[in-house]
Amino acid sequence: MGLRPSPVFDKENKQNRISMTESINISSWLKRSVKLYPYKRAVVFPSSRDKNGRVLYSHMTFAQLERESDYLAFGLEKAGIKRGMRTIVMVPPGLEFFTLIFAMFKSGAVPVVVDPGMGIKRMLICLSQSRPEAFIGIGKAHVLRKLKPKFFKTIKICITVGKKWFWGGYSLNQLCEQRDEPFNAVATLPDETAAILFTTGSTGPAKGVVYTHKNFHSQIMQIQSHFNIEPDEIDLPTFPLFALFDPALGITAVIPDMDPTKPALVNPEKIIEAIENHGVTNMFASPALLNRVGKYGKEYNIHLPSLRRVVSAGAPVAPENIEQFSCMLSKEAEVHTPYGATEAVPIVSIASREILSETKHLSKQGFGMCVGRPINDTMVRIIKISDDTIHEWSEDLVLDNNEVGEIAVKASLVTKHYFENPEADALAKIKDEDGTIWHRMGDLGWQDNKGRIWFCGRKNHRVTTRSETLFSIPCEAIFNNHPMVKRSALTGIGPKIMQVPVICIEPASDIKNKKKFIAEMQDLALSHELTKNIKHILIHKSFPVDIRHNSKIFREKLSDWAAAKIKI
């Protein structure tokens, strides 16, 4: 069967509009892919290596994935996991992971996914908050469940992926019963919960984001149309959850040989090996992974001609990082840096040509990080900065171009609420007069006269002194220009509105003369209007960063550290 074009987003096409009374199940996208490309590889997994070190792969076609997930959907119902049941999923990326998630979508069960990279203590709190009724995980996950029973009191049904030990329940293999008839996916409604995905909590308590089937549907449409995903593509998703979009888009997902919780420690050779073995055309990479692989590729003069695009997100992506990785790409390929959050992604995007030819130079001068223009019919507004609840939307909130404010977004992919967290809802969501929701990103930025959004940092990372407000990304850019600076971080110490600004510096290598280096940093600060009032410079050997992307700096921890160093 020849490859057929995927449907593209068209805001004038009524077929893309979803009635809130008609059923929609995200698993229908897989069924569509099966009809178009039944024998094409859907998922490829590195299972082992032969005696010569060559990778041996296991794979499932779209037809196999559809059939196996049907079998498992019947099994889940038999085990008692049905529509609306919140179910913890602790399974690493692989063939079972894909089969399981699509079986759950078909049955209407609600996967609860928490990133183990946030740490066991915080992860357990998140899992407990979701009040799950079922638990599906590998053996190690069940050991944790038995060792920490107070966090899993609501669990009624347990399923083990792999070998089942002493804890009882079902094994995944027991539930996969072959049937002649297909499983009829539950007729879920657009606003029905499809999954609960927890934020990393890198800038506050982790929150359970409620995804509906409509949210997922809109995300798939947005990704396909904006990045012009073609049906002959092969993806290397280095972030597991993003891999789930691939079967829906009709493209092959090659699971990388890496620990997804430690992208900054990835083996570049294994990533490059996967790209070359499969002719990967699309890759998602966190900035930390992009930097590690790009540095290796540049050093060894490696070229990856099969790549059509690289998508990097999760934290601000430095232009130097983009430029370094681009050395491995063809002239036609670009690095895209879409902007968003767990609650709304992707909403804005820009690509490497525009970054390297234009916005890079402005970012170095303290304009902020340009994240691009709103995608498709996504509405983005810059509103007045406030830490308070905003109950109703008003155009009076909106600032003019070139004014820094809080980024707010409205689109069909924007999630409406958190799981049983009305306080977080009140602070993050604004109701429009037509009943739709504006999501407050918690980020600060401004819009230029070309319609581009410039990111200036998190709202709770701004430093408010007696005389001015300083924004993290613009201020840090001034210090990052120094060749001996790996990265910098603006923090504030003291009470709000009367904070004392401090710049923490993580050097690129050992500083032999710290006194001289500090003096150079102080001269840099004085040389620019944005930073002239920053008097305190501290050297920090290694910044605390988030585990998932290894890129987001924990400025709150640096602030506590700085407060202990500086007496005010």
Would you spell out the secondary-structure blueprint of this structure?
Blueprint: H1 28-36, E1 41-49, E2 55-61, H2 62-79, E3 86-90, H3 95-107, E4 110-113, H4 120-129, E5 134-138, H5 139-147, E6 157-161, E7 170-171, H6 172-175, E8 193-198, E9 208-212, H7 213-226, E10 234-237, H8 240-243, H9 245-249, E11 252-254, H10 268-278, E12 282-285, H11 287-299, E13 309-312, H12 319-326, E14 334-336, E15 339-341, E16 344-349, H13 352-364, E17 369-374, E18 379-383, E19 405-410, H14 422-428, E20 429-431, E21 437-447, E22 453-458, E23 463-464, E24 469-470, H15 472-480, E25 485-493, E26 500-507, H16 514-526, E27 536-539, H17 555-565
Helix pairs in contact: 2-3, 10-11, 11-12, 12-13
How would you characterize this protein structure?
- This protein is α/β, with parallel strands linked by helices.
- Among the domains are: 22-39 and 55-212, Rossmann fold (3-Layer(aba) Sandwich); 366-411 and 419-459, Roll (Luciferase, domain 3), CATH 2.30.38.10; 462-565, GMP Synthetase, Chain A, domain 3 (2-Layer Sandwich), CATH 3.30.300.
- Helices cover 30% and strands 24% of the residues.
- The protein contains 17 helices and 27 strands.
- Strands 15, 16, 17, 18, 19, 20, 21 and 22 form an 8-stranded antiparallel beta sheet that branches.
- α2 (62-79) crosses α3 (95-107), α11 packs across α12 (319-326) and α12 (319-326) runs antiparallel to α13.
- The longest helix has 18 residues, at 62-79.
- It is globular and about 75 Å long.
- The termini are far apart.
